[in-house]
Fold:
Amino acid sequence: MSELTATEKEKAKKYYPLPKLAEKARIKSMDAYFKKWKYSVEHMEEFWADEAKKLDFFTPYEKVWQPPTGRNDEFVGKWFVGGKLNATYNCLDRWVEKGYGDEVALIWMGEDDTVKKFTYKSLMEEVNKAANALKSLGVKKGDRVCLWLPMVDSLAIIMLACARIGAIHSIVFGGFSAESVKDRIDDSACKILVVADEVRRAGKPRPMKNSLKGVIETCDSIEYVAIIKLTGGEVYQYEKDVDFLALMEQQSTECKSEPMDAEDPLFILYTSGTTGKPKGVVHTTAGYLVYGISSNYYVWDYSCLLDLKGDTPATRDVWYCTADIGWITGHTEIIYSPLALGAISVMYEGIPTWPHGGRFWEICEKFGVTHFYTAPTAIRALKKLGDENVTKWDLSKLKMLGTVGEVCNWPEWKWYWDVVGKGTSGDKPVGRPIVDSYWQTETGSYMMVNLGAITPMKPGSCTFPFFGIHPILLDEDGNKVTKPNTQAYFTYDLSWPGLMRTVWNDHPRFVNTYLTRFPGYYVTGDYALIDDEGYYFILGRSDDVIKVSGHRLGSAEVEAAINSHPKVVESAVIPYPHSVKGSTIFAYITLMNDDEASEELKKDIQNHVRSVAGPAVYPEVIMFAGAVPKTRSGKIMRRILKAVAEQKDIGNTMTLANPEVVEELIARRKMMGEIKF
Ligand code: WT7
Structure:
C-alpha cells in the first residue's frame, strides 16, 4: 500500500466535538443516539407521536400515521391524521400565551446596519396586520400567494401571515427572473404577488418591480400586486398595484389563526428537476413542522422556549442561518423550525462580502451568535478573502457551526474548523463541531446529519441518519448495496413526516420523479457510499441537476433559456468545477449559423440568459459546437460532455447515435485552452 500524505492522514482522522457540549446535550452519547435511532425506525409511530408533543394542536390527531395503500403512487401516507393546528400559532402565539411575549424571536439586520428586534409579541402583531391586509385583498384559506422579495423583514412577516390565514405561500428566490416568477404564478394560480419596488444590493438599488413590466400583465390569476416599498425609487405603476405596507398600517393587530388540517399544504416551493419546468414541492402543516423542530432540537441543542416551564430564561442561544428564504433552507431554518421551538433567529438582508469580507462574523459578534449555519460555497468565498477577516471579530460565543447544500470538502472544512471554529489539532482533534446536514427541498429538513454535540466527525461526511430516517443504497438493478465504499443510488424505504406529499398540480410527476425508478423507495437523485465505519458520504447527483453556489438549477431550464436566443438551435449544459461556486455552468451551444460564432455572441447569449432566467442562472463558459453527442433515443450524453469539458478520458462512445461529433468537440475544447476558476 502506498503511504498516505500528511494531508490525507489528517483528513482520515475523526474530529470530536468539545466534550463539555455533551453534558448539556439532549442526546448525550453515541450509544444513546444509536439506541434512539433504532427505536425510531422500528417503532416509528411511537417515536413520531412523542415528537409531535412538541407542537400544539387545536384538535388532537386520531392516528399518527396512515400508511399508503400499497400502490406505487404513494409512499409517504398521511401523518397526524385528523389533527388541526396552525403553523403561526405554533411559531408565535403559544410563546406569547405562555408569558414569553417579550422574549426576542427574530433579529433582522439590513444591509445599511438597521437592526429590528422582534419579540414574539411584536412579531405576532406584525404578522396579524399582514394577515388582515391579505384578507382585505380577498385572500382566503387555500389561496396561493406568491412572494418575490429580497431578504427583508416583510418577507418573514408575510409568509407567516399567509400561514396564519391558511393561504399557501410560494416564495420565489430574488435571484430568479420575472419570467420564472410568472411560470410559478401560473402553475399554482396565485392570486397575489408580493414584490419589492427595488432591491438594495451592495449599497445600490437594483430593479425588481420594473422587471415585471409586460410580464405580470400576462398572469391571469393575479388579482393584486402588493408592493413593498423599500427604496421608494420610481417604478412603473400597474393598475393592480397596492401599497402593502400602507395597507398593513390600517389593520388591527389581532387576527385569529385558521385551524388547518394536519395534511393541508403549508407552502409550495418550486425546485428544479431533470426535465421541464420547476416542480412545485408541496409541504404540509403538521408533518413539516414536526420534522423540522424535532431535527433542529436534537442536532443543534440550542436553547429554546419549548424547554421552559414558565421560568424565565437566563441566557438564550442565538441561531443564525445565512440562507435566503427563497430556498428551503431559509423556510425551515430561519423561520419555521427556530420560531416553533422558541429560539432567537437572526436574519440578514445582504451578501457576505459587502461592505466588507467579515460581514458574517461581524453579525456573529454583534448579536452573540452561538449557532452558525451556512453553505460550503460561502465558506469557500470567505476563505479566499483571508483569515484576518475572521480573526478580528470576537467569535467566543460560538458553540456550533454547520453547513448545508453540497459536500463540504476538505479545504473548506479544515478552514472552517481551524479559523472559524478554532479546533485544536493533535492526535484527537477537538473543537467546535461542524454539523454537515444533508437534505433536500423535498425532504423538509435534515435526513443525514451529525448530532453536533456528540457525533465524531469525518470531513466531507454527513455521518448518520436522523431519527426515523432509514437510508438504503441500491445498485442499478435495485439490489441493496451493503459493501462499504461502493457508489450507489441513495434512497429511503421508510416514510417520515417531513417528506413532500406531491408536486403541485402534477401528482404523476411526483411519482415519476421520486417513486418509480425503484418502487417502494423514495429516490433522492444523489449517489452515496457508506464507509467501513458506517459513515455516509454523498457523491453528487445521479441526475441532471446542477448545483451552482449550492443553488439548484435544472439543466433543462437553463437550456430552454439559452435556446430562446434567436441565433441558437440547441444547447446542452453541464456542471464545470469552480473553486468558489463548487460548479459553474458550461454550455455547449449549436448555432443556426456556425460562422457567426464569436466572443460578442457569447456575451450576448449570456446577457440574454440572465434576463430570461435571472442573475442566478449564468452560463459562465460557452463553447460553440456543431452538434452534441446523443443516444439513439435522442438523449444528450452529458457524461461525455463533462469529460470533454474537463479534458478527461471520454470512455465508451458505442451507444452514441453520432459518435463522429466527439472528435470535433475535443478539438474545439483544446482550442479554448485551460479554463480554471
Ligand atoms: C441537493 C438538494 C437542503 C437545503 C439545501 C439544498 C445536495 C444538500 C448536502 C450535503 C452533500 C448535499 C444534494 C441534494 N446536498 N446537502 N450536506 N452534502 N450534498 O436543497 O436545493 O433541494 O438541493 O443538495 O445533492 O440532493 P436543494
Remarks:
- The mean pLDDT is 93.
- Residues 271, 328-329, 404-407, 436-441, 462, 524-526, 538, 541, 552 surround WT7 (CB under 6 Å).
